[in-house]
Amino acid sequence: MITNLRELERLGEEGRRSLWPASGKIVVGTASCGLAAGAQAVAQGLFQAVQEHRLAYEISGTGCLGYCSQEPLVEVRCGDGLRVVYAQVNEERADELVAGLEGGDLSPELALCRWQEEAQPARKDPAAEAFPHHQQLGFYRRQQRAVLRNCGLIDPQSVAEYVACGGYSGLATALTMSPEDIIGTVGRAGLRGRGGAGFPTGRKWALARKEPGTRKSLICNADEGDPGAYMDRSILEGDPHAVIEGMAIGAYAIGADEGYIYVRAEYPLAVERVREALRQAKQLGLLGEGILGSSFSFDVHLMAGAGAFVCGEETALIASIEGRRGMPRPRPPFPAQAGLWGRPTNVNNVETWANVPLILTRGAQWFAGVGTDGSKGTKVFSLVGRTQNSGLVEVPMGITVRELVYEVGGGTADGGRCKAVQTGGPSGGCIPESLFDTPIDFDSLRGVGAMMGSGGLVVLGERTCMVDMARYFLRFTQGESCGQCPACRLGTKRMLEVLVRITEGRGEEQDLPLLEELAEGVRTASLCGLGRTAPNPVLTTLRHFRHEYEAHVRDRRCPAGVCRALVVYHIDPERCLGCGACRTACPQGAISGEPKKAHTIDPERCVRCGACIEACLVEAVRPG
Amino acid sequence: MAKERGWQARLFRGLPAEHEAKLIPLLQQVQKAYGYLPPDALERVADELGVPPTRVHGVASFYRQFTDAPRGRHTVQVCLGTACHVGGGKGIRDVLTQVLGIQPGATTPDGAITLEEVHCLGCCSLAPVIVVDGVAYGRNDRKKALRTLMECYDHEPPGA
């Protein structure tokens, strides 16, 4: 049990020893993305190799360093504090790496970079300078890792390592302050909710605080359902204690005695890590009765969702915790007035909670010094899609879309033109290349019809059809509509029908104004955020890419070559090598040709499945 | 009331509202243990928690995680999140439905494989992603996805 600062400091000492063992340590990124790239096998390979070579290196797992397109990532942490990161490590490379370590060789040819936090003194010795500093890499240069400070550094299952990095000192500070002071601090920092809507957190807390009631509740919304977004998953998997600490601070400020973390069903690893972190926090008295020797008591429960996108809406989420169908209800009353079981309830998103300890330890002024006038601090984005570098990035608010896509993302993977970025998932919109100088903050994005959303940012290249994209999102929201209000239930259905018609080549000119009319109805008449924002992907693509819609309905043509009913595949005889790869791949037997001579496709038999495009080595097969 | 059932008896005991919060976790346990929600188990859940069976059915049918039909011995999920969609996830789904001869959501007649579509597993940098029995495989194309599927069958007992 930890009842005072001295004991917390002692736990931190223990954590420092396990973070920086004198014998050195090898850490493997074992968040979901690392595991999907094969990190488990790499970790086992490293463990075996270290045993075989009789080295003293410890092996442990860590969260996500963010550079997901380079996974599996491995870091060698030398006894003297030098951290070297290796990318795309497979079992073979793991052997090579460990073999080198035996002779004290850090294999610079295999390394990605040297990791050096700003707080650490810069090392000038030749051993360190053999590696580029991580901020010399385009991917990291513009990043400022504050929320993600511990992801990729600590073992997420070690509370001691979290404490060694300053963890729970924010809570300790908070407990010496009055609740009003804490709310004032969070308000002065200018923190706005990271779940998408951007409501000022300090104001939200103040509302819940001033509600009468002896029992109040707190919820961490980790039902991250936007396809293409995984910030919350990474935070929970890489630094679960930061969220728990943030919640404890919030609970003290609001006067809540219990909290829930509602994690999406599709994130089993996050559920597991949160469960373990909660167990540790309770065991050490960082949650429960009389936290850190004070009179403040707070307990946190974990609830795994059961698969419903609409539960990301706060009133639906509350219904789900209460054991009911996750259907939103009209507000007011707002959860701050009557939430979970009628108690005043405060709901914030994962990233918002993870920001709270930072504000307490580094101060409101520090936080407010980052970002723009209206949007303070940093924001974590999942930068994915057609970029060269993809992964989890944390940048100061106000960076432009262009900087994010071209500097951090390194442009498109194939060097082609980047057509648009999609932000905010099914509630957001597409920002065309012509508007890439838009700064990324809550208000500017809303100005161009898109929205910040929770932070998903999907880069779209030339081969993405914007009509297909709109249809994709509408199909998603239509399927996820809870069905209680007709505007959403029927409106999204009708809109989807029109979009399907257009992508199947049966669209008419008047379908475009019809879409706009339906969109307006769904937007204004739906009860909750799901319905009200569902038309956004359609409206933004109609606004910025109307010519693509027109090509579909007027010319019966899909410029990106995606909509199957509107394209014919052909093989460029100039490029075709006659290797037969496409012929073997074709499930229809539609491709014929002599070896080493240009092949042809029979359009009658072709079903435009795309297997030949994927199989072709020289990009000779093209839709058009 | 004719014969009083367990849930009816409990209905009048004035259990606190918090009690009902156990419904979803309990259904999750049943789903995990049986691989689906057998009708008997649903009645049992209603009895245990003292809530009407309609409530239990209402909740069970609302959430995607719950199924009312037995599942295959293996589950193959194709991710169709945004990044996987633009990265070719649809092609992978098509080739798997073709090879297995079933639509997403269905189970092969031999009870070996249940095929599902999911919307984003949060491994977007490794798109397109498929998940076989809870293990995610990234950077797929049709060929690689089929190979992973075949490995499923390799782990089947002979004659299954």
Structural class of chain B: alpha+beta
CATH architecture of the largest domain in chain B: 3-Layer(aba) Sandwich
Count of individual helical segments of chain A: 26
User: Got a strand count of chain A?
Assistant: 18
The number of helices of chain B is 7
Description of the molecule:
- The complex is a heterodimer of chains A (624) and B (160).
- By secondary structure, chain A is α/β, with parallel strands linked by helices.
- Chain A folds into five domains: 19-137, Glutaredoxin; 159-365, 3-Layer(aba) Sandwich (Rossmann fold), CATH 3.40.50.11540; 378-461, Ubiquitin-like (UB roll) (Roll), CATH 3.10.20.600; 466-554, Up-down Bundle (de novo design (two linked rop proteins)); 568-623, Alpha-Beta Plaits (2-Layer Sandwich).
- Chain A is 40% helix and 14% strand.
- Chain A has 26 helices and 18 strands.
- In chain A, the strands form five sheets. Chain A has a five-stranded mixed sheet, covered by helices on one side.
- The longest helix of chain A has 18 residues, at 486-503.
- By secondary structure, chain B is of the alpha+beta class.
- Chain B has two domains: 6-62, Arc Repressor Mutant, subunit A, CATH 1.10.10.1590; 74-154, Glutaredoxin (3-Layer(aba) Sandwich).
- Chain B contains seven helices and four strands, in the order H-H-H-H-E-H-H-E-E-E-H.
- Chain B has a four-stranded mixed sheet, with helices on one face.
- Chain B starts with 5 loop residues before the first helix and ends in a 6-residue tail after the last helix.
- The mean pLDDT of chain B is 86.
- Classes of the chains: A alpha/beta (624), B alpha+beta (160).
- At the A-B interface, helix 2, strand 10, strand 14 and helix 19 of A face helix 2, helix 4, helix 5, helix 6 and strand 4 of B.
